[in-house]
Design goal:
heterodimer; A: 387 residues; alpha/beta; Rossmann fold; seven-stranded mixed sheet; five-stranded mixed sheet; B: Rossmann fold; two-stranded antiparallel sheet; 14 helices; Transketo_C/PFOR_II (chain A); EC 1.2.4.4 (chain A); Transketolase-like_Pyr-bd (chain A)
Chain lengths: 387, 442
């Protein structure tokens, strides 16, 4: 397997900013993470969600972090508060190919932060073994594209460990972190979003953050959750997404979606880096269709997902657009669409639209045409509104 | 070059042997420090290997094969100890207990196998021919964590898993610790440090390496032991697990039961090298091959392996050469792919239980009368367990939905309510009388 060094990814990212607008956006919308209103750029904004307001009373200190720094901060806190916690994977001890583990060896030593041989099934199996005797294992799979050799260990072993033993043994201390999703030039094996493969597996939890504040809170919750969790980190956000992150130890709830923008006419659901394409699509739609009001929901947890929040929203708006980078057929969007159909049948005023990657392998030079971009998401919103 | 790389680990073992009590006539000369130093020295050698001129040659030689490893044996077919200095220093009680547990397993296997044939349980796997592997159990400590494949009930028998506990699991009744979720023989018990068996082959191998690493970090004087067959050793997880244990210095004993067959596949179709043991050397793991039908050889090797693993924090590989006398499972008829005569000969002339019994008889620690009485006692106990187990209810239907996660998710709660509704609406299609009552009974 080819492992392209991240330096190339990240430096190109900084130059291009994958989602960043070309010089003259013809619709006047400043696209991308760089212009997102969802990121908390001022310290006082960091606590402006019901989940964190209480915390600010105790310690309202924040620090500017990008996503990889927030991930790093979460692991550092997890290892400080839990002596049994270890971090391992390919190339993690020098800091990781995306710098997410930098400085951890110096803080916690080589026994707790270590490189493994290049074997994904081994990494997952080793992590299952550590967790099975009560330790906290934070394993890294270098790219989500390379998680498939570990599929057996994750699906047949980790996910079923508690159930099959009658709750005598469990691997609740297991977390697998992995960079996922498009990065501008990742081709087949540095771009995939494999969450739907795992969403079909009872016993697992699948979590994906959209920002540094989320990355820290959700990763800490994932590490401490008493179930095996796969934590997918959108790699295009590692450096691009920057916000003021609370310095305290805090967790965000797993299994709860977040309503990012209230609206009344159409519900728009996504997760991870797709949220920024949706944010821009909503801006465009509300600009082009005056009076339109969209509700934006970040799923955050893909399994078990927050049916209640989504269903409540669609029962209000009567329309739904779901978007993700992964291919359409049997993707997470299909699960959401059919559940909404079951629960909101009488309220739906238009067919649910799914905006996804095409049913092809992730292509290199055609990435711009493959992606469920702002314009495709806008088109879907327009369709459900005009139906 | 070839010979020397082959000989090094053997030599290390030879020097280790000197230190153990079962090698009589030798002063205890084994020292942890000396061995760590030699291990460090050999590491340095490997690291500097390609910098030094004398590692090159003008001879173009393709390495083809190395001399097959011999299997370590303490006693022959007649139960006679070959080299008295290798006879373990044990008491009569210890030996008799070990024998009784071995014959208990054999007797239990016979009855449970028949029970499957009669349709009383759905599936079973016997241990015929591999009973001497129980020597491992006797050489380990109670807290050493066991990761098995499925033919390792000897570990449970030795550690005191009761006949009732075995039978309840096979019947999937409400007393089954696994709550009726897995097929028969997928035992597991936290109190005896025996990880629940799962069907996917080889998956336990890297897991055992991880568990042992955790023990090392926690400063525990414990190891993990991982059992697998020679067929499972062809899985990628074997490679992953051994390589990880070696590079990360996990105190794990990898124990391969090489019984000649993986279902119908003879080992000649499983590998071309010198069995599994030769691979251990390639991973930098100290390795030994033992006569798997010789309980004392298995015992001695495991005892020494445990000491190295726990004291020096590194893995050991043991390949135990034996023969699967029984069918692969109750779903298999092995006469379809191997000669019945061969099986009968092995059962008769190289039987681990018979060999051990002859040893005990030579010592006058056991006789026919005691044997008959013991087997009768076990048979009665198993049949009694059967009668009790069959009367028990199946586990409560609650257990269909619990333990998927630590807590039931909203989705699972909805699905359980859906099933409750179906049961109410179509009671004739959902017989619930066989199951223990639900706590949330609808």
């Amino acid at each position: 397997m080819l492992r392209t060094s991240s330096r190339r990814f990240t430096s190109l990212l900084q130059q291009h900013r994958f989602y960043a607008a070309s010089t003259q956006p013809n619709d006047g919308i400043q696209q991308g993470v760089a212009h997102s209103k969802l990121l908390k750029r001022a310290p006082e904004e960091a606590f402006r969600t019901p989940e964190l307001t209480r915390m600010s009373a105790i310690n309202s200190e924040t620090k500017k972090m990008n996503l990889f720094q927030a991930v790093n901060d979460a692991m550092s806190i997890a290892m400080t508060t839990d002596d049994t916690a270890v971090v391992f994977g390919e190339d993690v001890s020098f800091g990781g190919v995306f710098r997410a583990t930098s400085g951890l060896v110096e803080k916690f030593g080589r026994d707790r932060v270590f490189n493994t041989p290049l074997t994904e099934q081994g990494i997952a199996g080793f992590a299952v073994g550590m967790a099975s005797v009560g330790h906290t294992a934070i394993a890294e799979i270098q790219f989500a594209d390379y998680i498939f050799p570990a599929f057996d260990q994750i699906v047949n072993e980790a996910a079923k460990f508690r159930y099959r033993s009658g709750n005598q043994f469990n691997v609740g201390g297991l977390t697998i972190r992995s960079p996922c999703s498009a990065v501008g030039h990742g081709g087949h094996y540095h771009s995939q979003s494999p969450e739907a493969f795992f969403a079909h597996c009872p016993g697992l939890k699948i979590v994906t953050p959209r920002s540094p504040i989320q990355a820290k809170g959700l990763l800490l919750a994932s590490i401490r959750d008493r179930n095996p969790v796969i934590f997918f980190e959108p790699k295009c956000l590692y450096r691009a997404a920057v916000e003021e992150v609370p310095v305290e130890d805090y967790e965000l709830p797993i299994g709860k979606a977040e309503v990012l923008k209230k609206g009344t006419d159409v519900t728009v659901v996504g997760y991870g880096s797709q949220i920024y394409a949706l944010e821009n699509a909503i801006q465009l739609a509300e600009k082009k269709m005056p009076g339109l009001s969209c509700e934006l929901i970040d799923l955050r947890t893909i399994l078990p997902w927050d049916v209640e929040t989504v269903v409540e929203s669609v029962n209000k708006t009567g329309r739904l657009v779901v978007a993700h980078e992964a291919p359409k057929t049997a993707g997470v969007g299909a699960e959401i669409a059919s559940t909404v159909m079951e629960n909101c049948f009488l309220r739906l005023e238009a067919p649910v639209e799914r905006v996804c990657g095409w049913d092809t392998p992730f292509p290199l030079v055609f990435e711009r045409f493959y992606m469920p971009s702002m314009i495709r998401c806008y088109d879907a919103i327009k369709n459900v509104v005009n139906y | 070059m070839l010979r020397s790389s082959f000989v090094r680990p053997l030599h290390r073992f030879a020097s280790l042997n000197k230190g153990y009590s079962f090698t009589a006539g030798q002063k205890l000369s084994y020292s942890v420090l000396a061995n760590v130093q030699s291990a460090e020295a050999s590491k340095t050698n490997v690291a500097s290997k390609w910098a030094s001129e004398d590692k090159f040659t003008s001879d173009m030689t393709f390495v083809q094969n190395i001399e097959p490893l011999k299997a370590y044996r303490v006693m022959d077919h007649t139960g006679t100890v070959l080299d008295k200095s290798h006879e373990p220093n044990i008491t009569e009680d210890f030996a008799v207990n070990l024998y009784k547990k071995m014959s208990q397993l054999h007797t239990m296997d016979g009855i449970l196998y028949e029970a499957q044939r009669q349709g009383r349980i759905s599936f079973y796997m016997t241990h015929y021919g591999e009973e001497a592997t129980m020597g491992t159990a006797a050489a380990l400590n109670a807290e050493d964590m066991i990761f098995g494949q499925y033919r390792e009930s000897f570990m449970l028998v030795y550690r005191g898993f009761t006949i009732d506990e075995f039978v309840n699991q096979c019947f999937s009744n409400e007393l089954d610790y696994g709550r009726g979720r897995q097929m028969p023989i997928h035992y597991g018990t936290k109190k005896l440090a025996f990880q629940t068996i799962s069907s996917p082959l080889g998956t336990q191998i890297p897991q055992a390496a991880g568990a042992a690493y955790a023990f090392k970090l926690a400063g525990k004087d414990a190891c993990s032991i991982c059992f697998f067959g020679e067929g499972a050793a062809s899985e990628g997880d074997f490679h992953a697990g051994l390589n990880m244990a070696a590079t990360l210095n996990s105190p794990t004993i990898f124990f391969c039961r090489n019984n000649g067959f993986a279902i119908s596949t003879p080992s000649s179709e499983q590998y071309r090298g010198d069995g599994i043991a030769s691979r251990g050397v390639g991973y930098g793991i100290d390795t030994i091959r033992v006569d798997g039908n010789d309980v004392w050889a298995v015992y001695n090797a495991t005892k020494a392996a445990r000491e190295i693993a726990v004291k020096e924090k590194r893995p050991i590989l043991i390949e135990s050469m034996t023969y699967r006398i029984g069918h692969h499972s109750t779903s298999d008829d092995s006469t379809k792919y191997r000669d019945r005569k061969e099986v009968e000969e092995r059962a008769q002339f190289d039987n681990p239980i018979t060999r051990f019994r002859r040893y005990l008889e030579q010592k006058q620690w056991w006789d026919q009368e005691q044997d008959d009485a013991w087997r009768k006692h076990i048979k009665k106990a198993v049949l009694q367990s059967f009668a009790d187990a069959e009367k028990k209810k199946k586990p409560s239907l609650d257990y269909l939905f619990t333990d998927v996660y630590d807590e039931m998710t909203p989705n699972l709660i909805r699905q359980k309510q859906e099933l409750d509704r179906l049961i109410k609406e179509y009671p004739e299609y959902y017989p619930t009388d066989d199951h223990a009552p639900s706590s949330s009974s609808s």
